[in-house]
Amino acid sequence: MTDSIAVLGAGKIGEALLSGLLTGGRRVEELMFTERHPERAAELTARYGVAAVDVATAAKEAAVLIVAVKPQDIEPLLDELAPHATADTLVVSLCAGLPTSLYERSLDDGVPVVRVMPNTPMVVGEAMSAISPGRHATNDHLAVVEELLSVVGMVVRVPESQQDAVTALSGSGPAYFFYLVEAMIDAGILLGLPRAVSEKLIIQSAVGAATMLAKTGEHPVILREAVTSPAGTTIMAIRELEKHGVRAALLDAIEAARDRSQELGKAHDPS
Q: Which class does domain 173-262 fall in?
């Protein structure tokens, strides 16, 4: 178990992590957070009992600093952290696209940094998080981060060179599923179903399909073929998807997201 933990930035992801840590057994006294907006800080303290502090206090008192601000807010935050973070402080970055080298260049030499790409299902305890060590982070540091994030979902280790791909695939991934579900609900309405019925049909189908993938261990091709009868309704739908290039469009979309993640990193760390 680690000592005190500070979450820097209490947006949706920051709050989800605070909530998950408390649910996972962390004591209120072990946690603190920073938040620029006083009303939001007061709201979270009232909800969870966790103290809101300034960045300097968090850096001085916490053994683990979890950075959950927007990428465009990182430079001023690092300026505040720099005088206080030491080699005994573990910095965990949840900021999309930002490399560990950005933190290492801004903070004292030897500060261990672990880069994380989570996703929004963290708010329901079903995140997929990929973690990568910076130059000074050890296996022990990675184990600490795995322990922290396991309370809000699954965790995998990847080389940092793969983080832009992870960002495109699982970081942005929930949006692709929401987009597809939205389109399928609209299709149900087009076919004459009430919106409420269409939503229930598609959402539960999505939940069931994801559960089958997770629990059976079968390749998605095998599961899809099991639904696809000769000359049946499913193969006719699949033919239309292939005719309109849906598979190729997904490949192009995820590549575009990867490219944008790389651009974000270069904008903040051109070296």
A: mainly alpha
